[in-house]
Design brief:
The complex is a heterotrimer of chains A (about 290), B (about 130) and C (about 290). Chain B is α/β, with parallel strands linked by helices and about 130 residues long. Chain B has helices at about 55-65, 75-85, 100-105, and strands at about 5-10, 30-35, 40-45, 70, 90. Chain B contains three helices and five strands; from the N terminus they run βββαβαβα. A five-stranded mixed β-sheet of chain B has the order 3-2-1-4-5, with helices on one face. Chain B is globular and about 35 Å long. The chains are: A alpha/beta (about 290), B alpha/beta (about 130), C alpha/beta (about 290). The interface of A and B includes residues 152 and 219 of A.
Chain lengths: ~290, ~130, ~290
């Protein structure tokens, strides 16, 4: 079984549009959206959700106000500034609370509380889905607003896709990756055989591509690259080509800027099915070089 | 069991005819077997769905079972370091069934691995 | 006053709006909190005057004191400690630096040493802008602590004359975004008029509403796509305070790292109007 990942570092370079096109081109595969924070692939694949599952996040601390004696021990122990004191109007301490956004879930406050006033529990922090699409099975997820994107949900989604691929005898998994270089990206890269970096001919695009390539190399995935909207700045595209040559990264395609791509998205269609673009042939070629 | 003859094989199932699991930290079962009597114990791996540290947890479990040799597909650096610190020998690149693996091992056909065979967090055998 | 610039979706023009707004106002603090992929420096070209290392603490075990009791391994929520029969092993890349192990060790066998997670760059650029950004080291997984440190550092060095701080946020709606946007006075959500833009805008709106921060929408490339974003904003009573057209010239200047207002000075007034409009709204909300 092969796992292919499409990533970009920088957001908005056209990763999802390309992944959706691959969904229409590839045979016998499972599709996965690992951008669990702002997932968009479903807008082009139109899934019919078959299964919905709750995702339990990391453990977090909660102070039981009835038991708390306001000793402040947790405040001094917390390395993540997650323990906050709430003051009354007269300046006296009213209560101590834990800011669940800053809480890393280390549990140090929990086992150091002299009166056991701190609960440590998991909460539902998102959902993941197994769906049918006309392109085959699709695994996707939605992380709750403001939840920690630790990569755990990404790993969960990928494991489900793997099981699905096994039971459906699919030999390919195609993954739409998240932006950035942090936890979710690292989780997406694990076990991947080959990744495609989608970049654009801008200084930001090149800067971010360099960073993501380093991370991908670190995890041992084979890396290929495409330039999207290459004709918006031919000079910059040439620079990216030179960068690829110098670093031995196969540049497997250049897609020109085409407003038809936006029309295709607006119509909820993949580039392969939307016949009013001039980039379809190039994308088919890219798939042949990436998917084989 | 005589600990000198106790080996651990990562497995996809709970018996000797199961396939060897390709990943140490995330295998389904650890089969701990006496190579002479073929008496074995299958331990379900509770670390399989952990986000991180599966290899480390597994290594602690295996060490507590007094195993001297681990046979598996691949092992990550964290698990490798942990196992090695306890003097446990590691043999990677194993595939086929658990039973065949034991046979080959007894014939002395399998060699100890000197380094971890995959990167951290890689989880699975890469071709 | 602190204005954050965010967007659910990446690549909608967040950095463009933040940078051009900053240049149009002048004499402000500018923070790039997209520490995974910081790009604002490409446009603002700051002269970096200081680089601060952002470190977290990792444990080291004194083997002569350790009696392998296993307490450290048990309390570590991140599974960063393996207690083997002959030795305790620490895995730094899994460690969050909470200090729990050093605290619990009955033998006092654990001390801590620091390790760099990323850097904070501080500098100055044109129009009297004080620039700060965070750069997460490659292979590091945790952006939020660095983001919090960038904001903390900025608050410490801020002088009285700088009344405004503008923050460029990371994309998405998860923890790093919340850490960036929380405790700011106003948030600009940048989107594009496509189903992707709308989908992610709705998520971003939920996020800022949850944080109780007044906000507006800026639509980038408003003339290519559909009108569903505008319809959504109208239905939800969300002000659209600016619309930027698609033009190959703007795209080209962006690609070269040139801010719009530098190449097309007429935009300065448009961005300054956006700023004045925001000030008015924040005041309304304060009353």
């Amino acid at each position: 079984m092969k796992q292919l990942l499409i990533i970009s570092g920088k957001g908005g370079t056209g990763k999802t549009v390309l992944t959706a096109a691959f969904a229409a081109l590839a045979k016998n595969k499972v599709m996965v959206d690992c951008d669990v924070d702002a997932s968009d692939l479903y807008l082009l694949l139109h899934p019919i959700i078959k299964e919905t599952h709750d995702f339990m996040g990391e453990k977090k601390s909660f102070i039981n106000q009835e038991k708390c004696i306001k000793c402040g021990k947790c405040f001094f122990l917390c390395r993540f500034d997650a323990v906050k004191s709430i003051k009354k109007h007269n300046g006296n301490l009213e209560k101590i609370i834990i800011d669940d956004i800053s809480c890393e879930g280390c549990g140090v406050c929990v086992w150091n509380c002299p009166v056991n006033a701190i609960d440590f529990k998991k909460a539902v922090s998102g959902q993941w889905y197994i769906s049918d699409t006309k392109y085959g099975p699709f695994v996707h997820a939605k992380l709750g607003i403001g939840e920690e994107n630790s990569g755990e949900l990404v790993t969960m989604v990928k494991n489900q896709a793997k099981n699905l691929a096994k039971s459906n005898k699919c030999d390919l998994i195609i993954i739409d990756g998240p932006p950035g270089i942090g936890c979710p990206v690292i989780a997406s890269l694990s076990e991947v055989d080959r990744s495609l970096i989608v970049t654009e001919p801008t200084l930001s695009g090149l800067h971010d591509a360099e960073r993501i390539i380093n991370v991908a190399n670190h995890f041992g995935a084979e890396v290929k690259l495409v330039i999207n909207k290459y004709d918006l700045n031919i000079n910059m595209s040439t620079k990216i080509e030179e960068f690829c040559k110098k670093n031995n990264i196969p540049l497997i395609g250049k897609i020109k800027f085409d407003a038809g791509i936006i029309e295709a998205i607006v119509n909820g269609k993949t580039i392969i099915e939307y016949n009013k673009t001039e980039v379809k042939e190039e994308i088919i070629k890219i798939w042949e070089k990436f998917g084989e | 069991m005589d600990s000198e003859k106790k080996i651990c094989i990562t497995s996809q199932g709970d018996n000797l005819d199961s396939e060897v699991a390709p990943r140490f930290g995330r295998c389904q079962y650890f089969i701990i077997v006496d190579t002479d009597t073929l008496q074995f114990e299958a331990i379900e791996n509770s670390s399989i769905n952990m986000r991180g540290g599966a290899g480390i947890q597994s290594a602690q479990l295996i060490a507590s079972k007094d195993v001297k040799i681990v046979l598996t597909g691949n092992v990550g650096p964290n698990a490798f370091t942990s196992l090695q610190s306890d003097g446990i020998e590691i043999i990677t690149g194993i595939s086929g069934t658990v039973r065949e693996t034991i046979k080959q091992y007894k014939k002395g056909l399998l060699k100890t691995t000197k380094n971890s065979t995959v990167d951290a967090k890689s989880g699975i055998n890469k071709k | 006053m602190i204005i954050s610039v965010a967007s659910g979706k990446g690549g909608t023009g967040k950095t463009t709006v933040a940078v051009n707004l900053a240049l149009s106002i002048g004499n402000i603090q500018f923070l790039d909190c997209d520490v995974e992929e910081p790009n604002a420096h490409i446009f603002l070209n700051p002269k970096i005057e200081k680089i601060e290392s952002f470190e977290i603490l990792h444990p080291i075990i004194d083997e002569s004191k350790c009696n392998l009791c296993g307490k450290c391994g048990k309390i570590c929520e991140f599974h960063a400690i393996a207690v083997m029969p002959k030795k305790v092993i620490i895995f730094e890349e899994l460690c969050h630096g909470c200090g729990g192990c050093a605290l619990i060790c009955p033998q006092k066998a654990i001390t801590e040493k620091s390790k760099e997670l990323g850097i904070i760059r501080i500098g100055r650029c044109i129009n009297d802008i004080e620039f700060l950004d965070g750069v997460l080291n490659l292979g590091q997984a945790h952006a939020s602590p660095l983001i919090r440190q960038v904001k903390k550092t900025a608050a410490q060095i801020k002088n009285k004359n700088q009344q405004i701080t503008i923050i460029d946020a990371p994309p998405g709606t998860s923890c790093p975004v919340i850490n960036t946007v929380k405790e700011t006075d106003f948030c600009i959500l940048v989107t594009e008029p496509t189903p992707f833009g709308l989908n992610d805008l709705i998520l971003a709106v939920e996020t800022v509403k949850k944080l109780n921060i007044p906000f507006c929408v800026v639509i980038n490339r408003f003339d290519i796509g559909d009108n569903k974003v505008e319809k959504y904003c109208k239905d939800e009573n969300i002000p659209i305070l600016m619309k930027i057209p698609f033009s190959k010239e703007i795209a080209l200047s962006y690609s070269e790292g040139i801010p719009i207002v530098e190449k097309y000075p007429e935009y300065k007034k448009i961005f300054y109007d956006l700023f004045e409009n925001i000030i008015k709204r924040v005041n309304v909300n304060i009353q």
